Amino acid sequence: MARTVIRGGLVVTAAEEVEADVLVEDDKVAALALRGSDTARTWADSGADVIDAAGHYVIPGGVDAHTHMEMPFGGTESADTFETGTRAAAWGGTTTIVDFAIQRPGQAVRDGVDAWMAKADDQCAVDYSFHAILSDVNESSLKEMDVLVDEGITSFKLFMAYPGVFYSDDGQILRAMQRGAANGALTMMHAENGIAIDVLVEQALAEGRTDPRYHGEVRKALLESEATHRAIQLARVAGAPLYVVHVSANEAVEELSRARAKGLNVFGETCPQYLFLSTDNLAEPDFEGAKYVCSTPLRPKEHQEHLWRALRTNDLSVVSTDHCPFCFSGQKDMGRGDFSKIPNGMPGVENRMDLLHQAVVDGHISRRRWIEIACATPARMFGLYPRKGTVSPGADADLVVYDPAAEQVVSAETHHMNVDYSAYEGRRLTGRARTVLSRGRVVVDDGAYLGEAGHGRFVPRSTCQYLV
Ligand code: URP
Ligand code: ZN
Ligand code: ZN
Ligand code: ZN
Fold first, then answer.
1. In this protein, which residues make up the domain named Amidohydrolase-related (predicted)?
2. What is the pTM for the complete model shown?
3. What span, in angstroms and rounded, lies between the C-alpha atoms of 63 and 66?
């Protein structure tokens, strides 16, 4: 048996902060022992390997519940493969991703799941799982949901946006939610009124408003909050829990807050880009704004303080990346002269843990809340807890020795994502993952990559563990 002691760190979980040593046996956390205790002394004398964590935090590996590796979208494919994207995740202290397997109209849900399983197989540096995207809700896809839930695919994303691509109408959404209420699946919603947005897109283009910033103007906050409201009411009618993805507008947060004040099982996710970037970025000249085109769109800066507050009150419970990178050169380019042809999505899987640690440094959230929104709650929301998302005996040894004092300057020159720009170029951050373990194996250490494609395994998930 391989034994490793992570010694001298401050163990930070969503629940507590404790000066403790962590014993790892093979791929699991075996035990924690208070510093200086007899048990900790026994470990020191046992000949186990030692990872020195003095002056560092020992945290659970990040759980990024929203990524899109090698996703065909907008006439191209997101630039990170499962290999490059999960390696970048590991560099950034994220040791589990949950990606999206896409059902296309006319296909079985199973076809999408099989295709995405094949893409990820033997490629991943860290563990992974899948949600399924439903683009064709019909009698047979509803039946498939039951089977997939039993196989560990327990969450399904529906789109109120992108008519003709992923869009479901309200009747389809209601049916999928009813099925989820019956089989335990969690409905994830892309809440934007895509029918209305398409009208505004057409009008903007006809009037010559073609620059990237108009992407933000036509995808109005009101059309996010309207869809959020509708999704909540449909979920209430179905008696189903609801998780709204990539929330960016304060008006949408208000819908979530109202629903949550009623005690409903309605949850919200936001992403670093909405917390740290704004329409100012979308308005950058020389088509640079295209780097920041994603949906829901970036909002005016005033929205940020509302998102931070909602993260503190738990009206937003999770921060995922929606990592969906497209290169500026050759991909974002496709939308020069027509913002609606800019592939939607931004990179970030490598940056999330550090950006959120910066939020701790800046006083937006506490250290334990950092771990809660980035590790523990996504794990519980999507049925991965306590195997993932915490540091406790029996959990997978997905651990990060985090240096809270390390200074870094984010740059595409030094990042590991397969994309030619960083959305956070030049940003100074305090904090960085020093040593990263995935199931007991050191995959990153002190600036060296020691991982391997194929180490990461598919993790089947139980149903949502976060319901009130
Ligand atoms: O712009 C985005 N968010 N791209 C990824 C697809 C989605 O809607 O999550
Ligand atoms: Zn979406
Ligand atoms: Zn409302
Ligand atoms: Zn997404």
1. 57-441
2. 0.98
3. 9
The sheet carrying 318-319 orders its strands as 62-67, 94-102, 127-133, 155-159, 186-190, 242-244, 266-270, 318-319
Residue 345: which of 39, 70, 51 has the closest Cα? 70
Preceding peptide of 76 cis, ω within 30°: no
Q: Where are the domains of the chain?
A: 3-59+391-404+428-449, 61-381
CATH class of 61-381: alpha beta
Q: Which two tokens stand for residue 227?
A: 């869809």
| Cis before 313? omega within 30 | no
Query: What is the distance between the alpha carbons of residues 413 and 461, in angstroms, rounded to a whole number?
Result: 36
Residue 241 one-letter amino acid: P
pLDDT of residue 45: 86
**Looking at ligand 1, which residue's alpha carbon is closest to its atom 4?**
345
Residues in Cβ contact with 414 at an 8 Å cutoff, skipping those fewer than 6 apart: none
Burial of 422 by CB count in 10 Å (0-12 exposed, 13-18 middle, 19+ buried)? buried
Mean pLDDT, range 396-408, rounded to an integer:
99
Amino acid letter at 352? R
CA of 468 to the centre of ligand 2 (A): 25
CATH fold for domain 3-59+391-404+428-449: Urease, subunit C; domain 1 (2.30.40)
> Ligand 1: which residue has its CA nearest to atom 9?
322
Please list, in sequence order, all residues whose beta carbon lies within 8 angstroms of the beta carbon of residue 438, skipping any fewer than 6 positions away.
61, 90, 95, 125, 126, 127, 398, 451, 455, 456
Rg (CA), the chain: 21
> In this structure, what is the dihedral angle of CA atoms 430, 434, 436, 441, given to the nearest 10 degrees?
180
Q: Nearest C-alpha to atom 3 of ligand 1 is from which residue?
A: 295
| Residue 159 pLDDT > 90 | yes
CB atoms within 10 A of CB 122: 11
